[in-house]
Amino acid sequence: MTRKNEEFIINTLKHSPDMNPSIEFVNRTRQELLHRAQNTNTNENMFIKYLLRSGLVAALMLVAWFTFFSGSQQLNTAIHAGLSIFTSRSSVISNTNAKPVVFIYHTHNLESFKPELGSSLIGKSVESRDINITRVGKYLSEKLEEFGVKTLVDQTDYTTKPNYNFSDSYQLSRTTVSSALKTNPSLKMVFDVHRDSLTRDKTTTKINGKDVATIHFVIASSNEKYKENLKLASELKKQIEQLYPRLSPQISLKNPAGDTSRSYNQELFNHSLLIEIGGMENSLQEEYRAAEILAQAISNIAR
Fold first, then answer.
1. E-strand spans in the chain?
2. 146 pLDDT exceeds 70?
């Protein structure tokens, strides 16, 4: 097709009657557009009114929550927890290659939980090689890592040692602690994590409508380092109470009267604690909730 033919076709289309709509068509189109615009404005007005009414209802509900349902306390708790998580997250990157600060181990590693064992518990002690306190220690370490605290965990099963006797447990775990301290001079805190043997009503509290296992710090007062250990326990208790006032950890001083097997190996390091999280009648979920709170408190001190 020549250029002359192309110009002819373009001019023909340009001046075609189809390219010049009638006045009637133009008027009809104008009226249709105006009608649609009015409907749009009406819908927008209805939407705006809906938003205003919804906002008013939400405001009234918020006032009622604060006034009648302890909303301010729950909000305060959430803010404390949120700020703690936010500030700790900021240190995660800088601690990627950091040396371990916390060491977690379990002298009584088979301690388990009745709700998790079910029918397999009948006629047996509350122990398990699979579902036991080592899961809680692992969860605690994972939360500490999330908060930027480098953590070592030992899950040695001392019951598999030759000629094992329960009364020798602390002597066996003593070797574990000594080795960890020797190979990791960066350690600042050492925790032997257990669960208590008390009943559920004594090892459970409720926070924001959820059951949470209690936390109990046990300190042997028979060694020269107990004051430093007590200081650490007191600081952790303070941190936890600031985050969650309903979870007030207990601190117990025990004097084993020179019995080295009952010093809980705390004379090996001046920031050592035996920590009981919940009891034999708590579930793992309740244990985990307490462990996460404990991790927040530890991370606040570790930083």
1. 102-105, 151-153, 189-196, 204-207, 210-213, 215-220, 250-254, 272-279
2. yes
Query: What is the residue extent of each domain of the chain?
Result: 1-69, 71-302
State whether residue 108 is helix, strand or coil: coil
Q: What is the pLDDT of residues 104-122, one digit of tens each?
A: 999 999 999 999 998 777 6
Q: Which CATH architecture has domain 71-302?
A: 3-Layer(aba) Sandwich (3.40)
Sole residue written with tokens 């034999």: 280
Q: Please, which contacts does 228-231 make with residues 24 or more away whose CB atoms are closer than 8 Å?
A: 228/270, 228/271, 229/266, 229/270, 229/271, 229/272, 229/273
| 208 Cβ contact list (under 8 Å, min separation 6) | 74, 77
Query: In Å, how far are 51, 180, 277 from 138, measured between CA atoms?
Result: 47, 17, 13
Q: At what angle do helices 226-243 and 71-89 cross, to 10 degrees?
A: 120
Spatial separation of the C-alpha atoms in residues 122 and 117, rounded to whole Å: 9
Residue range 47-75, pLDDT digits in tens: 555 555 655 545 555 545 544 444 544 54
Find the Cα–Cα–Cα–Cα dihedral 94, 101, 216, 179, rounded to 10°. 160
Asked if 92 and 302 count as a contact pair (C-beta separation under 8 A), the reply is no
